[in-house]
Write a structure and sequence with these properties.
Helix content is about 25%, strand content about 30%. The chain is of the alpha/beta class and about 375 residues long. Helix 9 packs antiparallel against helix 10.
Length: about 375
């Protein structure tokens, strides 16, 4: 049984005038709270309580430690008459052991998690959604609320395999399967034969040419020798079944390693809320275009480049991947294939080096865009030798 009950609820009555609501703000500081949940595969913990929900009330959470809840903080916006609505700050907080996720941002239009640590959930560490997605899809409505989240100088960690009950309860298991397929691009088992066939002008058998390996992985091996991935964020539609999600979601999640990186990014006048940086869920621009194509189920890997992408009938069907260096990735693949076709070891070495560098340039996370308008941010891991 999934509860969704909350211990505290910050809420204002619909109909209050703009001035009153704009002045309404809740501050949570120096709180230590322990609930009745666990980051567990046992279904009984799906009935755990949520610590706090903030509905249409700007909220600041500072210097808190919260453990063992269904969700620690669930923040929600949607009041169209309040220009200041949707501002949520989580600063110098810690949270652990949640059944669903540690943080849930539901149409939170201006949210920031800074100088904090959140670890261990039975699902992703953070979930973000877009309020009004169903009407946006079915009626082209524009009165929606999107989540814009910045993560600054914070440790966000949820090690999952995709077999946890949360993924089955919420119907996310099929989408998760395409996430794990990214590993084939990293470990040297991704089949490039369709692209190689086009370059060679003849049909090559499947598996003839595969990607070069890299020193990165999506899997972290834990003390129990099992392999898990750190799923930092899932962005997903609200109130609609995945099979009806026919448009890319809107919104973004950006992760900055330091306060300086965060400040420098927004100090640049060319960088705006519409800049395609991080896990950018948009209907316009390169990644939005690729998300649209991914929804159709085309067997294509997309990289962040205006024109270039390479197609395949391989395992990443319907998943788009934001490469750190798209030109390097494409150039590396082309050189690698050409070297393999010509048995040219020097060309193969150059292609492999460019290919690896493309992933290294991507920083500490992989951003993937999945079937049914979903996206996820996964931490990059060093490959075990």
């Amino acid at each position: 049984m999934t509860s969704h009950s909350a211990l505290f609820c910050n809420y204002y009555e619909t109909g209050l005038d703009v001035a009153m609501n704009a002045a309404c703000e809740v501050n949570w500081s120096n709180v230590n709270a322990v609930g009745n949940g666990e980051a567990s595969q046992e279904n009984i913990y799906s009935g755990a309580i949520i610590l706090v929900k903030s509905y249409r009330v700007n909220s600041n959470f500072v210097n808190n430690v919260t453990n063992k809840f269904y969700i620690n903080y669930l923040v929600h916006t949607g009041e169209e008459n309040c220009a200041n609505d949707g501002q949520f700050k989580i600063d110098y907080c810690k949270g652990y052991d949640a059944y669903q996720c540690l943080l849930f941002f539901n149409g939170a239009e201006k949210a920031i998690v800074s100088n904090s640590e959140f670890k261990r959930a039975a699902g992703p560490a953070i979930i973000t959604t877009m309020i009004g997605y169903e009407d946006y899809v079915k009626k082209d409505a524009t009165d929606y609320n999107i989540t814009r989240l910045d993560i600054v100088n914070s440790t966000i960690e949820s090690l999952v395999s995709g077999n946890e009950p949360w993924f089955k309860i919420y119907g996310a298991a099929p989408q998760f399967a395409s996430v794990t397929a990214l590993e084939a691009m990293l470990n040297g088992t991704y089949d490039l034969s369709p692209m190689a066939s086009a370059m060679a002008g003849q049909q090559l058998p499947a598996g003839t040419i595969k990607t070069p390996g890299t020193d990165k992985s999506i899997f972290a091996t834990t003390t129990d020798s099992a392999s898990y991935m750190n799923m930092i964020v899932i962005s997903m539609p609200d109130s609609i079944s995945f099979d009806q999600a026919s448009k890319p979601m809107l919104g973004y999640v950006r992760k900055f390693e330091s306060q300086t990186d965060y400040e420098n990014f927004y100090a640049d006048s060319e960088n705006t809320v519409d800049d395609e940086f991080g896990l950018y869920m948009g209907e316009t621009g390169n990644l939005g275009q690729y998300s649209s194509q991914a929804i159709t189920g085309e067997s294509t890997i997309f990289v962040e480049d205006d024109v270039n992408y390479f197609s395949t009938t391989g395992v990443l069907s319907g998943t788009s991947f934001q490469a750190g260096d798209p030109e390097g990735l494409l150039g590396g693949v082309s050189l690698w294939i050409a070297g393999c076709l010509q048995s040219n070891e020097e060309m193969k070495a150059q292609g492999a080096a460019l290919y690896k560098q493309a992933f290294n340039a991507g920083g500490s996370t992989f951003n993937l865009y999945l079937f049914n308008a979903m996206g996820t941010m996964i931490e990059s891991q060093p490959r075990n030798k």
